[in-house]
Amino acid sequence: MAQIRWFQNQESFTVAAKGMQKAIAQWDIPIAEAAFVNGHCPTCDRQTLFEVNPGAMFAERPNLREGLRCSHCKLTARQRLIMLAMQQEIDSLASPLRGAMLEQTTRLYRVAHARWRWIVGSEYLGDDHVGGGQYWWSTHWWRWRHTRHESITSFSYASHSIDLLAHSDILEHVYDTKQALRECSRILRKGGVMLFTAPFFADRHDSILRGRLQDDGQIKHLEPPEYHGDGMARGGIYTFHNFGWDFFELLRESGFTRVEIGLCHAPDEGLTSADPAAEQPWRMLPLLFRAVK
Prior knowledge:
Strand order of the largest sheet: 1-19-20-12-11-7-8
Helix content: 10-25%
Number of helices: 6
Distance between the termini: 27 Å
Structural class: alpha+beta
Order of helices and strands: EHHEEEEEHEHEEEEHEEEEEEEHEE
Number of strands: 20
Radius of gyration: 19 Å
CATH architecture: 3-Layer(aba) Sandwich
CATH class: Alpha Beta
């Protein structure tokens, strides 16, 4: 099974990532040019057929981070990377465990919860909802679900009550990142782990603030507006941040004692550069973060 390599600084990560350029050209480019590829799914732990392009694109090229969907578990490359990190982390933690995922209406949550019943899922349903409350919620009238509401800036979980916290592509959409990270740190016990993905600019030190939230709730755009697809919001969700390496400093200031970026390039297991035909494909390798309290 693929193993995630963890790095604590920009220098060691960049050397490792740039060292994969030849492997990306040899393995990832042919995958991006196919419609389906055979491989081994680390979530299913079985041979599978990966669908290369389930919809997400870079212009005319498939976005392999949101593609390479397993024909069995139906998870994308990003989702399977989260599952892989959770499995490897859980194997190293002592039971019993209490965990939280900041999604509940997704296939990723359903797969994770079926494997680890102690993981509690939630969605952000809006500021007019009460944290920890259960609400009937749907973005499609025929698919209503009883859904727990939690806000990453104001959890209902007690302090020091969670062993493992997982979320995927959330922080870039939260204006008050500092408050969000303080809340994540607050609910984790000492030694607890937060695993998460977020779009990351590996060649930048300074993060970019794309928009500033005004007192009247309107957004003052500092960069051209950018929206990402979101299953809970029709039309996508606004992106406030593009993170660079100074994001590590923010995590440490929020109470995390060890912060690492994980890299896992495993083409046979459907984990490739998101866009191997890009000018610098090493910047778009399968990445996620681990922050230990």
